[in-house]
Amino acid sequence: MHERAQALLVIALLVLLAVTVALDPRVPGYRSRYDAQATPAEVMRWQRDLLDWRRAPTWSKLPAPDFTASYVFGKYRYRLDVQISANELHYVSWGTDDQQGGGAWYAVGHGHRQADGEWFSIWSCLDLSREVSNGGGAWFAFSPDRRRIHVRYYHDTLPFGADPMELGEAVMVNLDAGAELTDETTYADPQWQTRTPEGRVRTYIETLQVRAELWGRVVDEQGRGIAGAAVKQRAAGRIEAVTDARGFFRLELEELEALTLLAAGKPGYYNGIVTLEQATALRAIGPGRDKSKVALATITLRRYDTHDYREYAWVAPDPDPAPENHLSCGNCHRREHEHWSRSRHASMAVNAWTRAAFERDARPHALADGRTQDDCTPCHSPSLASTLARFDLQGATLLDAAGVHLRGNHCDLCHKIEAVPDPDKPGMNGSARLLRPDPNDARVPGGIKRVFGPLPDVSFLYMGAAYNPLFSTGALCAACHQDGNAQGTYREWQRSKYATPAHLKHCQDCHMPAYTRGEPKSFPGPDGRPIMVASGDLTGEEAAANGVAIARYSTRFRPLNEAHKHSFVGTEDADFLRAGVTMHVEKVPIVDGVRLRVTLTNVGAGHAIPTGHGLKRYVLSVHGRAGGQPLAFAGGLPESERAGAAASATTGALIGRQFSSDWSVPYWRGQPTQDTRLLPDEPQVFTFDLPGAESVEVKLTMRRGSPALLQQHGLDPERTAIAGAQNDLVVHTWRSR
Ligand code: HEC
Ligand code: HEC
Ligand code: HEC
Ligand code: HEC
Ligand code: HEC
User: Fold this and answer.
1) Cβ within 8 Å of residue 177, ≥6 positions away
2) CA dihedral (388, 391, 396, 398) positive or negative
3) What is the pLDDT, as a whole number, of residue 658?
4) How far is the CA of 453 from the centre of ligand 3 (A)?
5) Mean pLDDT throughout 6-24?
6) In 3D, which of 439, 394, 388, 372 has the Cα closest to residue 412?
7) In this predicted structure, what is the pLDDT of residue 354?
8) What is the Å distance from ligand 3's center to 337 Cα?
9) I need a labelling partner for 666 at 20 to 30 A (CA). Which of 198, 218, 226, 652 fits?
10) Greatest C-alpha distance within the chain
């Protein structure tokens, strides 16, 4: 009888809740789409997905906690296992969403007890069924006996504004450690039967139009102020403040939203984030100068271990739905992956020419010279190189790359470069300093443990994100694009105007440009609802939100300047080259034939054209004709380069670096003798006389390598594509009329 009354009460409460939600003007954000049911087949699949996820990272390796308990949360009966040690809270949570667009998911959370007794935590979720990620923050208020937790939480995915917060209650269930939740355990438990049957009630908090001053401090785990930390609101588009010598910072807010997400980062520490709720921010508020409001915040940063753990296993870049490969970068960072995988960074370890050049030429040549040091692998197979203790031509070399190492300069590798202490050394041999994390560090869930990146406001726990401004400068690229005299791109850049404050452009600004917005257009779809399309790089949703998602479903959109195309655009893109170098041809009539004055100017490259180790060259070829026939070859171009697009040239010039009198000798077999490259904004004028010419054609061709050298390496320069590109790419053509 008593139980019946309780059940009735629950039903009555449910009805009341439904009515409240339907009628209450304070919760306009509550949408019933949450409750639309998925198909039974989908739900079955998600349940299987969850069972497959046994190898999930857990917090089980953490030091013995003072308190552990299992809870169920919300009407979908999510499992929530909580551990507390002193003032630190850890939890894992998992379940299936039997709603439309749901899935099986697994989340971890980490937080601390606040001064008011509540616990604030960041939670991060892996959606196991759809390979997406998600996260946010949650406040836990425990009942005195800890049998219930009142939870307020938000998703980063939701657009913020007035209703970002949802409410729910978690109820303790009696489970043996590690036991699975079954219908019997939950429904037999009296606590469960009186649960609050929701988990997804949105709150409504109006944005306050007040000028607020936000005072804060960035501290380490011992509470000491951290100087020089970068501080910003989440996705603000820029670093908004830098802490002073005692760790203090000050921000001005134009309005106070329901939530203010504040983050900080500094090299040496993992990023930290706090979330100010309007109500608590206001409670701390006192009158400031000019009667503005003042709120207070403390952001704690945790130091990372500065030992490089060589045993760390690289996480593969390519999307992979297998549960054990759930953290493959491409699963979440789809767009970065798509662009990167078409770049030369992805193909470098399998580049057929590099392999042939090494195997047939550089290695035998060095060995014949009595040298045994491998000077190629540290840059061309950096992933494999990172596992080698020394670089020995008779040991493992780029030819031995296998598995993830075949993915060249992959995501995890580049994002674990902590510093480039000596740009002039080659790649993984002294230039790039990797900081691979401890694979057994239980405080960061998942296998990635740490990434360095340009954003101090990334808090997704599986990333272990650590702000590193190196990523926004060309010093990072210098790891492999600068090598003493062999390769000088970084130093060329430093001498160019692009390294000066007035014209500052880093390698990234040109080779990792921002996504283009394009024009969003909306047209009615089959069901009458509008479909958005955009002409730029953005999806319709992104165009509408005027931002970019850098990981699928991960967060609110980021402003365009917080996302960088990972195309590493280079010589495969004719338009890019065309924008870098101009060709102006002036025709001067002479008595018998034609005189041409050709001006080439490097107008767009932040270094010499061509740059790199002198294998590339530009061929300026002049093709004269008379009586329908090509004119006889008149010199100017070396014979060996009168091939490919320049095959019928009458004359011309070669723009590049020479390492002997013969243009086909590569840098590893010669000494620099001549440099005819185009430096930024320094035009070069070439004059050609073509006696007897009736018509002339001028071509400027980017040539990957000397045709004679390619032939020596067993490749056919006219036919073989090198890493997907032809040897010759005609950039400009001019024809006389
Ligand atoms: C399960 C999804 C997921 C996977 C897998 C994943 N990431 Fe992330 N990553 C995220 C999310 C979410 C963010 C934060 C997005 C935001 O805040 O806008 C992020 C952010 C980043 C950032 C920015 C960090 C900063 O502070 O600038 C980098 C770099 C990054 N990820 C690299 C990687 C690499 C490398 C891999 C593979 C080794 C990887 N990610 C795998 C979800 C993922
Ligand atoms: C770990 C070494 C390494 C790092 C770090 C690195 N690169 Fe590269 N990069 C290479 C190698 C090696 C190649 C040539 C690969 C090939 O052609 O097979 C290359 C190729 C390129 C190309 C294409 C060149 C062409 O011929 O089209 C561009 C552009 C480029 N890198 C830009 C960058 C930028 C910008 C950065 C810094 C953000 C950077 N790289 C960092 C090693 C590196
Ligand atoms: C050659 C090194 C390099 C490689 C390889 C690389 N990245 Fe990055 N990544 C960068 C740099 C540099 C930035 C920051 C650009 C800036 O701030 O100008 C960045 C930024 C990011 C960010 C932050 C958002 C943004 O776009 O600025 C994410 C996320 C990210 N990378 C993920 C990836 C993933 C996933 C891959 C592999 C598919 C990858 N990266 C491969 C160098 C690299
Ligand atoms: C102002 C824009 C700009 C900046 C800054 C810049 N580059 Fe370039 N880069 C270009 C252009 C344009 C080209 C194509 C040049 C051409 O026409 O051949 C290019 C070509 C390249 C190539 C392909 C090889 C070649 O000779 O064409 C590499 C590699 C490269 N850049 C690396 C870098 C690195 C590393 C940095 C920073 C140290 C950097 N770039 C800075 C614009 C830039
Ligand atoms: C400091 C890093 C570094 C070292 C060391 C290095 N390379 Fe490179 N290599 C590059 C970069 C960066 C590029 C692309 C830019 C350029 O030079 O055009 C490249 C391009 C090449 C290419 C042209 C690939 C193509 O498809 O166009 C070949 C071939 C090559 N390297 C061979 C070698 C050999 C052989 C060695 C050893 C003797 C070597 N490299 C040492 C960084 C390096």
Assistant:
1) 68
2) positive
3) 96
4) 7
5) 52
6) 439
7) 97
8) 10
9) 652
10) 117
Q: In sequence order, which residues have a C-beta less than 8 Å from that of residue 557 and are 6 or more positions away?
A: 235, 542, 545, 546, 547, 548, 549
CB 269 within 8 A of CB 238: no
187 vs 717, more confident: 717
Ligand nearest to the backbone CA of 504: 4
Q: Tell me how far apart the alpha carbons of residues 645 and 631 are, in angstroms, rounded to a whole number.
A: 16
Residue 452 · residue 470 · CB < 8 Å: yes
- Per-residue pLDDT band at 197 (split at 50, 70, 90): very low
Q: Which amino acid is at 405?
A: H
Which residues, including other chains, have CB under 8 Å from residue 372's CB and lie 6 or more apart? 366, 392, 393, 394
Q: Which residue reads 């449910």 in tokens? A: 14
> By the 8 A CB rule, do 581 and 600 touch?
yes
User: Contact, 633 vs 650, CB < 8 A?
Assistant: yes
Q: Taking the CA of residue 642 as centre, how many other CA atoms within 13 Å lie in the half-sphere pointing to its CB?
A: 15
CA distance 319 to 1: 56
Assess whether the C-beta atom of 537 lies below 6 angstroms from ligand 3: no
The four Cα atoms 463, 536, 235, 454 give a dihedral, to 10 degrees, of: 50
User: Considering every ligand atom, which ligand is closest to the CA of 378?
Assistant: 5
Give yes or no for residue 613 CB within 6 A of ligand 5: yes
Structure tokens at 29: 């954000």
Q: How far apart are CA 279 and CA 297, in angstroms?
A: 13
CA distances from 162 to 22, 146, 556 (A): 17, 30, 15
Give dist(CA 607, CA 497) in Å, integer. 10
**Which is nearest to 356 in space by CA: 346, 367, 364, 347?**
364
Q: Return the minimum-mean-pLDDT range out of 260-264, 265-269, 478-482, 545-549.
A: 545-549
Q: Residue 470's closest CA among 498, 425, 444, 431?
A: 431
Judging by beta carbons within 10 Å of its beta carbon (0-12, 13-18, 19+), is residue 135 exposed, middle or buried? buried
Tell me the pLDDT band of 305, cut-offs 50, 70 and 90. very high
Give 26's pLDDT tier (boundaries 50, 70, 90). Answer: very low
Say if ligand 4 is within 6 A of residue 613 CB: no
Residues 6+ apart with CB under 8 A from 308: 433, 434, 435, 436
